[in-house]
Amino acid sequence: MNGEEFNALTGYQFKQQDLLQQALTHRSFSRNRNNERLEFLGDSVLNLIISNCIYHRFADADEGNLSRIRASLVKQETLAQVAREVSLGDHINLGGGELKSGGYRRASILSDALEAIIGAVYLDSDYRHTEQVVLDLFRGQLDRVDSADTLKDPKTRLQEYLQSRQQDLPLYAVEKTTGKSHSQLFTISCRIVDPDLQASGTGTSRKKAEQQAAQKLLDQLDL
Fold it and tell me: So where are the chain's domains?
């Protein structure tokens, strides 16, 4: 991918073409000049931009709901999907082994490259331009965020998911309780039958532990 192609996709024109090429270079292609440092930077910039966007977009959401929305947008699977939508895998520089094993399709490589691109744009310009690029790339993902559903707590979402499929409700069980009465820590398991999955959550209350366990199951179900 050259600067003109990237400009056509995002409306942003790189001034430093070497930054773009570095962002597209996997460590299997070059140990000395690859996209790992740019990925590190891009990850932080992406989280800030998405956090700022959803903070204003979901004015009634509390911290927990905002965290869940952000996690759904910046997780590896979502980043990889965004990368596929712009055919980023076709332009990543990979070593021979990664090419043979289909690395250009691998979610981890695609998501890392996308974060590196974001880091490169930030270094090449400023926050405002990077924000525009990110919001353009994630427009479809942001539009698909259903506030009415996303803002529901994990236990409710998991229960409604199972009920919609006429499946048994999740089973919660206390695995252990530690600490003194005024500072207890609960570990609770959550299990569903179809598919047979189980996860554990820990929290300072049973409710928090159950919510965490339910969220882990939702993540396993990719919901």
Answer: 3-144, 154-220
